[in-house]
Amino acid sequence: MSAPSPINHRFLLISVFAGLALGLLANAAADSVPWLIWTTEHVAQPVGQVFLRLLFMLVIPLVFSALVVGVCGLDLAHVGRLGLMLLGYAAGLSFVAVVIGMTLVNVIRPGEGLSVPVRDPTTPSAATTGTGASAVDLLVGMVPDNPIKAAANGDMVGVILFALIFGMGLSLTRTDAALRLRSGIEGVYDVMRTLIEAVLKLAPLGVGALLAATAARLGIGLLSQLLAYVGVVLLALALHLIIVYSLIIRVFAGRSPIEFFRDVRLAMTTAFATSSSSATLPTALKVAEDNLHLPSHVSRFVLTAGSATNQNGTALFEGVTVLFLAQLYGVPLNLGEQALVMAICILGGIGTAGVPAGSLPVIAMILLIVGVPPEGLGVILGVDRLLDMCRTVINVTGDLVIATVVAHRATDTDQ
Fold first, then answer.
1. Largest Cα–Cα distance of the chain, in whole Å?
2. Roughly how many angstroms between the first and final C-alpha of the chain, as a whole number?
3. 117, 221, 230, 343: least buried by Cβ within 10 Å?
4. Cα gap 167→172, rounded to integer Å
5. What DSSP designation does 42 have?
6. CA-to-CA distance for 105 and 244, rounded, in angstroms?
7. Gap between the Cα atoms of 336 and 143, Å rounded
8. Could you tell me the pTM of the whole model?
9. DSSP state of 33
């Protein structure tokens, strides 16, 4: 079983309604009850900012250690063909998922329509990509000349690239000192998980404060934007589940999609109920061997490694959330910046593995990169519980899809 969630969802729900009510009341009675506005600006806003700063404080060590541990866990030098197939299919499915989500956000534009400006249009963007830079300049700029400087300057793309390269080098180095270093980085990762869990226990207070400050500026229009956001996420998840997974099962595994979904429905139900890929892993292994009749050596490897590296639903959710908040705050993102968001969301599947509410630091990191006010996290956290349950279904089902395809391809190759 997985560790219990550090967030008390009952308190979180209460804080969401309380913060939303306070903010809407302050917005509606700004002239007649000025102390409400004072409360949101001088109490709620600082409390929410402290909560966000605690998260940002942990982002760089968390992302670095998680990526290094994740890459070392793949151990590509030894898992061979199965590992490469898993990595290829996981990256491909995550790419398709993020494309679906970001396309829907760009078409439906759920974050637009508010009449109250929430961002000064003269504020410069913190994006690491410049609109006038060429493709070659962008590629060169992604490679940090000094990883310490990249971390200090908030260049998360450079930090991510260095962590991936460092993780591959550490995985291929077989010395006693390298093994001790790997164990030390795993210890850093464990400490970051503990600290993230501690910070997330403050989520009800932080989210309520952020939502109060945001609702005070946006007014009642925030509710319609939030419902539209939830609708886009659920629609994107449904399209990926029903259409993409069905095509993959039919084309690459030669199976009936209807029969496949019928066979894995127990794992899907467990994923929805637990909101945890780790907690669903025993059920997924049983379903793979008893219902799908996959070879045990394939299903055990793919499902175990996939639960940490194949996060289609999470990648889709992160992409939709970043673009929604960019629209909400009036921050235009060009194609290059959206491509950068897409790449980080796909890589985030490795970086968020095993961390409770792990998508939160990744989304905060991307918001900083593209210059979107990070306090927008308070808006989406109020509805995250439902979306977490739904995207976990996508993650677990995606693992079973890849296991089925890898088993089919491995069988064809052996014959």
1. 79
2. 38
3. 117
4. 9
5. I
6. 18
7. 16
8. 0.71
9. -
What 3-state DSSP class applies to 330? coil
Kindly give, in sequence order, each residue whose CB lies less than 8 Å from that of residue 315, ignoring residues fewer than 6 positions away: 94, 97, 98, 345, 346, 348, 349
The 3-class SS string of 357-415 reads: CCHHHHHHHHHHHHCCCHHHHHHHHCCHHHHHHHHHHHHHHHHHHHHHHHHHHHHHHHC
CA distance 167 to 75: 10
Tokens representing 173 are: 């180095």
Secondary structure of residue 98 in the 3-state scheme: helix
CB 249 within 8 A of CB 401: yes
CA distance 45 to 212: 8
**pLDDT tens digits, one per residue of 376-396:** 787 787 677 778 889 989 999
Sign of the dihedral defined by the CA atoms of residues 343, 349, 355, 359, in that order: positive
Q: Does residue 36 contact residue 30 with C-beta atoms inside 8 Å? A: yes
SS3 of 312, please?
helix
Q: What is the pLDDT of residue 276?
A: 73
CA atoms within 13 A on the CB side of 86: 26
16 to each of 52, 111, 113, 212, 380, how far by Cα in Å?
16, 19, 22, 8, 10
Which tokens sit at 16? Answer: 């969401």
Q: What confidence score (pLDDT) does residue 127 get? A: 43
Shortest CA distance to 101 belongs to which of 241, 233, 245, 246?
A: 233
SS3 190: helix
Please report, as a single letter, which amino acid is at residue 378: G
| Residue numbers of the chain with a pLDDT score lower than 70 | 1-9, 30-33, 73-80, 113-139, 141, 154, 156, 218, 278-279, 308, 349-358, 382, 411-415
DSSP symbol at 5 = P
Count of C-beta atoms within a 10 Å radius of residue 63: 25
Burial of 228-262, coded b for 16+ CB within 10 Å and e otherwise, reads: bbbebbeebbebbbeebbbebbeebbebebeebbe
Residues 6+ apart with CB under 8 A from 412: none
The phi, psi pair for 19, rounded to 5°, reads -65, -40
* 325-342 confidence digits (pLDDT tens): 999 888 899 888 898 899
